[in-house]
């Protein structure tokens, strides 16, 4: 049985306890029980949008070059606008010039908008795009499907930017940031820019359209506003390369509630696709975001928790990814409840800060080990489990999980969930 370092005085994390009594282990103190507010319930469907305007092309088109990132569909907007103006972009005049800006540098603009802090990450499992607004009744039906935890409906459409068609979503930045890849979700400055009615694009769009942060560009929809680029980051959604604020989207005529994101942990995404397709009916594209072609974003890194668990497990010979997935479910419901517990544990894998100092991992290579970032926290959990013998299986695995949270009921719960993951996905 592998023993943790002598300096350790407590578990990695207090589990999200069920109230069952932990087993007596004299040498180890028991963790404080966590009490959390319930999270992860399906969000209320958005209010019904106004009547959709006529499309540029009837329905949803499956286009060979639907977007700059090679998406497989286009959510089409309202009435055709005039072609995008040619020529250089107009520099946005900031309220106060940045002291560090040199001659010819892009202007750093003020953010101008407030967003709520990131409290959880919601991995999208399914994306559905309709040929018109999806009704509130259908959104409610999707939210009530078995095992569905979160649903988000957004406006969207195809606009012209720099003379190219780009698929855009109009979103509430405080709510939508949770649905993007973790590194993008935590970039508060990006979401503040969006709240200030600037636009955000994928890195592919920024490069291919030669966009510069801080400059204005005409965006052609039903109207043609000049919008300032607020930044870029991987959006994690196939075919979607641009985000605008709900205000800007409304002015440009983006179709209300044209797309729905669905999160349903612990159930086959293919089954969710089938169920959502049945609710929405013909004329709707329903994508399984767990298919291999959708599983990377920005630099080829994994975009889903499932991938992160599988990748992290490879760092510990003999450790099954299903154990990491089970711990991630018990501790934070895969990032939905990653805030500080009453015991002081933090992040998607609920590390105690002192333990994180010893076992934290810079999994995404950004130069720091971030307790709140699943790219770091999940391999950190694998490192800790491995140090306590998890890779040897049997009693050693049991002991390693017990070290994660000193309670036999917790170990049994994790191991039973791991078996359930193996039965479903292996």
TrEMBL record:
Database matches in InterPro entries: Lysozyme-like_dom_sf (IPR023346), MltB-like (IPR043426), SLT_2 (IPR031304)
Protein name: Lytic transglycosylase domain-containing protein
Ranges for domain Transglycosylase SLT: 341-389
CDD domains associated with the record: Slt35-like (cd13399)
Superkingdom in the source lineage: Bacteria
Alphabetical UniProt keywords: Membrane, Transmembrane, Transmembrane helix
Low complexity bias (residue ranges): 83-98
Coiled-coil ranges (or none): none
Keyword Membrane attributed: yes
Gene3D superfamilies named in the record: 1.10.530.10
Classification via Pfam families: SLT_2
Keyword Transmembrane: yes
